[in-house]
Specification:
Strands 1-2-3-4-5 form a 5-stranded mixed sheet. The chain has one domain: Aminopeptidase, CATH 3.40.630.30. Helix 3 links the parallel strand 4 and strand 5. Helix content is 33%, strand content 21%. The chain is α+β, with helices and mostly antiparallel strands.
Length: 154
């Protein structure tokens, strides 16, 4: 199964497939909010002269059908924050999980980070998200030593 998965850069025409997959996984409440979010990633993909797709955004497909996606963006450098690629979302069709698809998406991001000399890869999780924690650890991510997040109820 792993060998027949094609990971490629996200294209504008993938937007509906990504929204649909996200909605099937997390329900319509969250997928409604994705319209603006995904469109922000895809906005530049409409420009024909753009030399490449938005950096760090991929889909995984099998026989032309999108079965997973990863959206990331470069952040950091501002105010002394560590520079790195931030995984904003990664999802795999529930029927296709445990076949290495998510790992293949993360591996593609790692490859691009190395090519662009992006030093770190980050992902933020909600406490208690054990499934995502296990997935990220399986992809080689560990708790950050360079970043701590604090919060306070207003």
């Amino acid at each position: 199964m792993y060998d027949e998965v094609l990971v490629r850069s996200l294209r504008h025409e993938d937007a509906d497939s990504v929204r649909s997959l996200d909605g099937r996984i997390l329900g319509p409440d969250r997928s409604i909010t994705w319209t603006g979010y995904i469109d922000r990633f895809l906005r530049l993909a409409d420009v024909e002269a753009l030399p490449e797709a938005p950096w760090g955004c991929f889909v995984a497909e099998i026989r032309g059908r999108v079965v997973g996606f990863l959206l990331s963006e470069l952040r950091g450098g501002e105010y002394g924050m560590p520079r790195g690629a931030w995984i904003m979302a990664v999802a795999v069709d529930p029927k296709m999980r445990r076949k290495g698809i998510g790992r293949k998406l993360v591996d593609e991001l790692v490859t691009q980070c190395r090519q662009r000399r992006v030093p770190e890869l980050y992902a933020a999780l909600l406490p208690g998200d054990n499934e995502a924690t296990l997935f990220l650890r399986g992809c080689g991510l560990d708790p950050s030593k360079s970043l701590a997040i604090y919060s306070r109820t207003a």
